[in-house]
Design the sequence.
């Protein structure tokens, strides 16, 4: 019987260690970079934050600014534990009901959230008026507020949500932050 040729051993251990080292260095470097860039900022007690376009509000104590989700001039996002609170200001040319109907449809159909009630009116202490409704899903529960200023062609959308068991505990703080909403008078 003829002897089969002997297989030459591959010397891959060194290359494998090098590749593993490069991957570990890359992932470790990205993790270190992510840790060095702050995703949150403390907010001084009593400080008023500007969302944009002359819209201001006062965050509740111990809430932190979410710098990754906030955008200068249009969006302010803050959080405290599992609670999330965001305010978005954008242009709107149309009637006061359009953005509200779209948001309800997006939550019901797109996010598969159950809307808890029909929209009801609310008013802030500065006189802003709008509509609000609650919502819930398997992994979150919250409340949505909207102010439409047709004269300025602006819509202010406020969303508060948390894990289902935590939403009720912080709803009072969210309502107080909404109540602090104000809009600077036109120049």
Sequence:
């Amino acid at each position: 019987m003829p002897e089969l040729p002997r297989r030459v051993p591959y010397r891959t251990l060194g290359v494998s260690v090098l590749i593993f080292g490069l991957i570990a260095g890359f992932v470790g470097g990205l993790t270190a970079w992510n840790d060095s860039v702050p995703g949150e900022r403390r907010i001084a007690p009593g400080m008023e934050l500007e969302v944009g376009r002359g819209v201001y509000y006062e965050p509740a104590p111990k809430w932190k600014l979410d710098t990754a989700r906030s955008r200068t001039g249009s969006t302010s996002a803050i959080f405290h534990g599992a609670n999330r609170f965001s305010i978005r200001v954008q242009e709107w040319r149309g009637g006061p009901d359009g953005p509200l109907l779209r948001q309800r449809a997006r939550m019901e159909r797109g996010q598969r959230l159950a809307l808890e009630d029909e929209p009801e009116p609310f008013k802030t202490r500065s006189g802003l008026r709008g509509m609000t409704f609650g919502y819930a899903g398997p992994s979150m529960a919250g409340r949505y507020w909207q102010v439409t200023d047709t004269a300025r062609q602006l819509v202010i959308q406020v969303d508060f949500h948390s894990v289902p068991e935590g939403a009720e505990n912080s709803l009072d703080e969210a309502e107080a932050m909404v109540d602090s909403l104000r809009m600077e008078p036109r120049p």
Summary: The mean pLDDT is 89. The CA atoms of residues 106 and 112 lie 8 Å apart. The chain has three helices and twelve strands. The first strand starts at residue 40 and ends at 42.
